[in-house]
Each structure stands twice: as structure tokens, then as C-alpha cells.
Specification:
The chain has 16 helices and no strands. It is mostly helical. The protein has one domain. It comes from Flavobacterium sangjuense.
Length: 381
């Protein structure tokens, strides 16, 4: 059955695709560098070292923007927010793939690593897999109860599932946000969004620098809600001031300027890292507002990237498992101390192609079944 999109804004899937591909690029280079394999770039290179988290921040801003806009739309249309439907829609979209990847990480990856010597070719992954300290009951429970972000900040790395930390952040965000929008009036909502935007970076800075005691410090740094708050502020103004937003975001000059500024700030350290992250995220919000404006003649529209954005959740979740499979096989048949160009010429296409193929099959034959239920039984707007 073909999935019918109930609500759609042009341009968002292309941005999702870019975010997911940036995360994959970052993790390939991270694995190359840590394992002393050939790296196309020095990991000290600011762009490569931070492009993965910038991709995640783009996901966060997108989530905050879209969820807030949809919740405001539902509240305006129905005079309420159907919380049960909201939570069930999130569950049907996110939980099936999350727990499937969790099962791969807990069951399949350790079985492969301990029964096939080829996986010893990737020392970092292999040592993490066979070292039970990295899993443990506590670590597994964190992942099982949808707190992979807390697990990661607590030192519980799980090969094939640690990337899900950002999914945990978004799920925890979804628990709070609909309640704020449901019970607060229009004027209070925007003040709360702005307050969270300012408070969370300060609290996280204090937690990272020892001013907040454990375990509250770990909890604080693991929920960077200010990135979603940035998106939510954009969603608020797009909902209540749509004509004004569209008037400014149709400018070709503004769109080009935003893109150039993003390229600058993701490539060059201009401010402290905490400030730079916020600047980049604000630029991401501006990019989103421009990208959804069909009146802007130069915004990025591409069918291939729109398709990748559609399956971007799978790309994000599956790519570390694909890396776990691909790196040992390449290292087995092509020694990494040989030509680095050839090595990466093999690594990159294999990881990207296999990840995209698995993500497509997963979306078509697995995720779509739950999306159909979500959209047929729990429609809101």
C-alpha cells in the first residue's frame, strides 16, 4: 500500500537527507582515524570533526520546528491536542526501527563478532563488543527504556546502537512539548520557548564544568532541548506570522547568504564551541524557513535527496551496523596500509550504497506497515 502523506512541507526531506549523510560521513572518518585506517581528512579538521553533530543539530531543529507547528495547527483546528494520538503516532513511527536496531546491537553483532575472526580486523568495534563492561545490565536497561542519550553520556557505548542517542533526546522532547502547547496560551508559549532556548545552554555548560552534581549533570548534558526550542520558535512564527515569514524567506539573496554562512560556521571555529553550535542551529532554522518557501526560486529541490530524506531515519539507524560489516571485509582483502585513495574508494561507496539499500527495504517492508497504522488510525491534522 502506498503511504499517503497527511501533511507535507516541501524541502524538509532534502534537509533530512543532508543531515543523515553528514552523520554517515562523520562516522566513517571517525572510525578511520581511531583505528589508524586511511582517512581522507585529518580528524582534527574542524569540518570533519563536527559535521556529524551538526547533522544531528539539523535533525533537532527540524523536529522542534515541525512538531511545534503541527501541534499549534492541531490546537487551532480542534481547540485541543489529542495527546493519546500524538504519543501513539510517535510510537508507531520511531519505536519499531529503534528496537529492531537495538536487537541487532544486542544479539546479532555480538554473535558475529565472537564467531567470525574477521571482525577482529576492526579493533575498536571488536573490543567494545566483547568487553561486557560496555554493555552490562545497567547499560542495556538505558537503551531498553529509551534513554540511549543517558547511556552514552554515562559511558555505555553499544556498537550498532549508540547513534540512537539523538533519537532518545527527541523522544524525551516529545513527552514534554505537547503538554506545554496544550496548556499554555499563545503569549506564554513563545516566552517558554525563548526561556528554554536561553536556560538549557547555560545549564549544560554548568553541568559540563562541574557546577551541577552527578547524576543530574549527566541528565542535563544528555537532553540538549535548546536545539529543539530553536526549531519550535521558528514553528511558532511560521504558524502565527506565516505571511511575514514567507515575504522575507522568498529572497534569493537571503537564501544564498544563509547557505554561505552555514558553510563558513561548519568549517571554521569562530566562537567557543557552545556558541558556535547555537549560531549554526539558528542558521539551520533560517535555512528551514527558506527551504519550505515555494516562492523562493533557488531553494534546493531534488527528487533523489527527497527520497533519501524519506528513508533518512533508516540511514541514520542502520549505517553503524553497515560500517561494522564493511570495514572488516575491506581490511581483510585490502590492507589499509596500502594506497589510501583506493581504500576510501572502496569504503565510501560500499557503506553508502548498502546503507541506502537496507534503509529502503526497511522503509518499504517494515517501517511502512507501522506508518500506515499511524496515519490511518491516529490522524490528527
Amino acid at each position: 500500500m502506498k503511504i499517503k502523506q497527511l501533511f507535507f512541507l516541501n524541502g524538509l526531506n532534502e534537509l533530512r537527507a543532508i543531515a543523515a549523510l553528514l552523520v554517515v560521513l562523520h562516522h566513517i572518518e571517525l572510525n578511520n582515524t581511531i583505528n589508524s585506517f586511511h582517512s581522507n581528512f585529518s580528524f582534527s579538521n574542524y569540518f570533519i570533526g563536527n559535521i556529524g553533530q551538526n547533522g544531528v543539530f539539523l535533525f533537532f531543529v527540524l523536529s522542534g520546528f515541525l512538531i511545534s507547528y503541527l501541534l499549534l495547527l492541531e490546537k487551532e483546528k480542534n481547540q485541543t491536542i489529542q495527546l493519546k494520538k500524538f504519543f501513539l503516532r510517535r510510537i508507531y513511527r520511531i519505536w519499531p526501527l529503534y528496537y529492531f536496531v537495538f536487537a541487532i546491537a544486542v544479539i546479532l553483532i555480538p554473535l558475529l563478532a565472537t564467531n567470525f575472526d574477521i571482525f577482529k580486523e576492526d579493533p575498536l568495534s571488536y573490543n567494545q563488543i566483547i568487553d561486557t563492561h560496555n554493555y552490562g545490565i545497567k547499560g542495556i536497561l538505558f537503551y531498553l527504556f529509551f534513554m540511549p542519550n543517558v547511556a552514552l553520556w554515562s559511558g555505555y557505548l553499544m556498537v550498532g546502537c549508540s547513534q540512537a542517542w539523538s533519537v532518545g533526546v527527541e523522544e524525551q522532547f516529545y513527552l514534554i512539548w505537547p503538554l506545554l502547547i496544550l496548556f499554555l496560551n499563545r503569549k506564554i508559549i513563545i516566552r517558554v520557548f525563548l526561556l528554554l532556548f536561553f536556560v538549557f545552554p547555560i545549564a549544560i555548560f554548568l553541568a559540563k564544568n562541574g557546577f551541577i552534581p552527578y547524576p543530574f549533570s549527566v541528565i542535563m548534558v544528555s537532553i540538549p532541548f535548546h536545539f529543539m526550542a530553536i526549531g519550535s520558535i521558528g514553528g511558532y512564527f511560521f504558524f502565527y506570522k506565516k505571511e511575514l515569514v514567507e515575504r522575507y524567506t522568498k529572497s534569493k539573496f537571503l537564501y544564498a547568504l544563509i547557505v554561505m554562512l552555514i558553510l563558513l560556521f561548519v568549517s571554521v571555529p569562530v566562537f567557543r564551541i557552545e556558541v558556535q553550535e547555537i549560531v549554526v542551529s539558528l542558521l539551520f532554522l533560517a535555512l528551514i524557513l527558506c527551504s519550505i518557501n515555494d516562492k523562493n526560486p533557488i531553494v534546493f529541490r531534488n527528487k533523489q535527496f527527497a527520497f533519501l530524506g524519506k528513508i533518512s531515519y533508516g540511514i541514520y539507524m542502520y549505517h553503524t551496523f553497515v560500517m561494522f560489516l564493511v570495514f572488516p571485509f575491506i581490511n581483510k582483502f585490502y590492507t589499509y596500509n596500502q594506497n589510501g585513495f583506493i581504500y576510501n574508494l572502496l569504503i565510501y561507496p560500499l557503506i553508502f550504497i548498502i546503507t541506502i539499500l537496507i534503509s529502503y527495504l526497511s522503509y518499504k517492508y517494515f517501517e511502512s506497515k507501522f506508518i500506515e497504522i499511524k496515519d490511518s488510525k491516529y490522524k490528527t491534522v
